[in-house]
Amino acid sequence: MDITQKVIAITGAGRGLGRAIALSLAEQGAQLALIDVNRSDLEVTEAEVRSRDGQCTLFVCNVASEPEVEATFTAIKGQFGALHGLINCAGILRDGMLIKVKEGVLTEKMSLAQWQSVIDVNLTGTFLCGREGAALMATGG
Asked: pTM value?
């Protein structure tokens, strides 16, 4: 599939899988809307994309925030005029066990706040970005 000059938004583009996908798509000629909550991580990805002669624009956004996601996709439409694809890679892991037991004694429980932050980014963020991205793609905007 030829993606030359196609606009692709990537969440979680600041590190890991999101960055790797951004670099691959840049090499294929896509125009990238790179989304992450961390500007400095995005800037590293941007430098790597540009070193491959890729094109990208950075969007700092907390994908768990509906107003931020809506504003980001409005900005993507304003910047590029269209969206042809979305890759949801934003995700977090709160490295904690459901419970910790030592010598038969419960010593710690994962907090609801830890659990909720994972759900907010990994699930709600995917929903919000998917909804806004689909709206742009379905309307040609």
From this structure: 0.91
User: Is pLDDT above 80 for 57?
Assistant: yes
Supply 61's token pair.
């956004």
The 3-state secondary structure of 87-123 reads EECCCCCCCCCCEEEECCEEEEECCHHHHHHHHHHHH
Whether the Cβ atoms of residue 7 and residue 31 lie closer than 8 Å to each other:
yes
CA–CA dist 116, 15 (Å, integer): 22
Q: Tell me how far apart the alpha carbons of residues 139 and 141 are, in angstroms, rounded to a whole number.
A: 5
Answer whether residue 124 shows pLDDT above 80. Answer: yes
Q: In what order do the strands lie in the sheet with 85-88?
A: 55-60, 31-36, 7-11, 85-88
